[in-house]
Amino acid sequence: xxDIRSVRADPAAFDAALARRGVAPTSAALxxxxxxxxxxxxxAQAVQTRRNALSKEIGQAKAARDEPRAAALMAEVAAxxxxxxxxxxxxAAIGAELDGALAALPNLPAADVPDGADEAGNILVHERxxxxxxAFPAVEHxxxxxxxxxxxxxxxxxxxxxxxxxRGAAARLARALGQFMLDRLTRDHGYEExxxxxxxxxxxxFGTGQLPKFADDLFRTTDGRWLIPTAEVSLTNxxxxxxxxxxxxxxxxxxxxxxxxxxxxxxxxxxxxxxxQHQFDKVEMVSIVTSDDSDAEHERMTRCAEGMLxxxxxxxxxxxxxxxxxxxxxxxxxxxEVWLPGQARYREISSCSTCTDFQAxxxxxxxxxxxxxxxxxxxxxxxxxxxxxxxLVAVIENYQQEDGxxxxxxxxxxxxxxxxxxxxxx
Length: 426
What we know:
This protein has 12 helices and 18 strands. It is α+β, with helices and mostly antiparallel strands and 426 residues long. An 8-stranded mixed beta sheet has the order 1-11-12-13-16-10-9-4. The chain has a 3-stranded antiparallel beta sheet with strand order 5-7-6. The radius of gyration is 28 Å and the shape is elongated.
């Protein structure tokens, strides 16, 4: 969410930054709303000031036994009192309209984010690892998966399209991947493991930017709660309405949770296989830092995700997303894309974003630097570390063997009882 004061301070710069994200100029309309709100506030304050002054005059008139004047003053007070609720209601209505207009606007892109309309405008930062050369034709995971325990038919029969029943070797491998990721983040990178709620209220979704704009992408329960689309929601809201001491930062949280997405905007995309599901597991990283540390933390977080891909010996590349491909709350995003030999292309497996103070303003999350009295908004960051289902797909495709089994990456063997291979049919 944006600060109307920054819009007033430099409306041209605000409009120019939003234009990079394909948003039409909006500063003039925002400033008009703000001026109306401020004028209403000023009028209400003037009415209250006049009421206070009249109260003193009434006392003086009564002390002087000037009953006609006292009666006239009391009539004026009554009129002002009757007028005040209307002003307060108008202020609330205009304020809500202004807040709603501000809340509907995406975060401003960082200066180093490239301009572009869609993923074609993303920039390659680097590639790591060499795609494997197979002695046989590599196939996609949806051909290998059923023999390993990815039961697409049973999942669809139970719950419909984009649900998969995972069993046997695939289930063990998915569990191993999740444990491996959490261990790396907590043991090697200082993240605190969290087991958060999977159901949250409107305020939590609003705080991280899912509401109100993306309600159609979410699942909602009959009692008005929302199933989280990512643990980013729960983890970031840990600091909602908190006034933190500066010395406790940075805070780093990690969680392995199911995630739920309606995929409303993904009709026809990845209808086969395990790439795009309504329910999937993901390890999420969230950092809460000072404004001075957010850029360095963004690099650190992205390297944490990259390190896991390197440990699994999966070829990948880092992409800097352009303005048209970033998420609503992000100021800068790095996507990590893993090589899938069955598809012969790179696919997203992690997305790491800095949201600057955009989410913090929506959540009223602040910190007080040591020795300072004035609180500042924290900066929030989030990233996948990693998406378990897509990592499972990447391991199956990159470690496939000619008989349909898969070799187990060395980093995962301790989590699978030392097994070096998972055979089909188990």
